[in-house]
Task: structure prediction
Amino acid sequence: MITALDKNTALVLIDLQKGVVKLPPAAVVNNIVQNVVKLVDAFHIAGLPVIVVNVNPAYSKFSISRKDAPPTNKAFFEGDSLDIIPEIKTRPGDIFITKHTWGAFYETPLDEELKKRNITGIVLAGISTSIGVEGTARQAGELGYNITFAKDSMTDSSPEAQDRSLKYIFPRLGEVGDTDQIIDKLS
Result:
């Protein structure tokens, strides 16, 4: 449930790029994208920052370390796959961040950009819930940001991972609600 948004809140969109959006999600991507577009429009109307984050794991330490899961298919990060999907209408003044790991704060200027604007709260949306969104949320929590999760503006390739993030992790880091509840709190 969304009780409030900070006066200085930014919308942070995670990995809504061509190469990630085409991966199989748990929820229908079109519905997620429609909700994200509503959030972007609402934040622009409110004059609040919109941060658009994409991921390029190529050459990151994380992408070459040992792990059980196979490495990410590099084909998803070639050509125009890093480009943000065209449905997201950005404006001059929006902030663009390229991350190289799961979280958007690690070795990026995101924290600095938010602090320059006196941002104390963030609304998170994007793909994938249990990886990019959760990774960013954990880092944001460690940095002291108030976090709001737009649960109908995010999806995951694993329904179980999506449910676990929404049910167990996110309520410990912030407030979880839907797009319309968040937009109502912007007014």
Q: What stands out?
A: The chain has a mean pLDDT of 91. The longest strand covers residues 146-155.
